[in-house]
Sequence to fold (194 residues):
Amino acid sequence: MSPPRLVLGSTSRYRAELLRRIYADFDQRAPGTDERPLPGESPRERALRLAVAKARAAAVELDDALVIGSDQVAECDGLVLDKPGTLERARQQLAACSGREVHFHTALCLHDTRSGQDRIHVDHTRVCFRSLDAGEIARYVEREQPLDCAGSFKCEGLGISLFERIDNQDPSALIGLPLIALARLLREAGMALP
Fold:
């Protein structure tokens, strides 16, 4: 019996690069999910809802597949930090994070089209930013252009220099896909991994 097809319900190059670390043969599908928050929804609840929605949307019309959905929501002092989209917003976000603790909720859903079962996990990462001056922020944003990253940084690159410490259980979660949990969920679903 052949293993099910593995599908990443995301067009994110960051998530695809992460997934290749543990499993090279997969397809990517755009889930087309509405990512607007719901009234009264916590950042953790939003991340989990969107991860499940992305996995299920990408699974439409697939039979023998395991479909991965993931979403990350960042918050600082109760304010959600979305992808900045512009250099100015990136500078503003980093200035707001300076000297503060930022919480990242990275949710994961593995949807099994054979059974309809969802396996879920949410990683909580605390990032403590060091105090940043305007010049450091401007140089960082100009060099890395983190416009498509929640929180306006790339911890896998120069962004690591912005922090005092990172507290979490899975370093890949901060990049956008918690690989330790994903490997466990894939094994639970019958995939052979090392």
Summary: The first strand starts at residue 5 and ends at 8. Strands lie at 5-8, 27-28, 65-76, 79-81, 101-112, 118-129, 163-167.
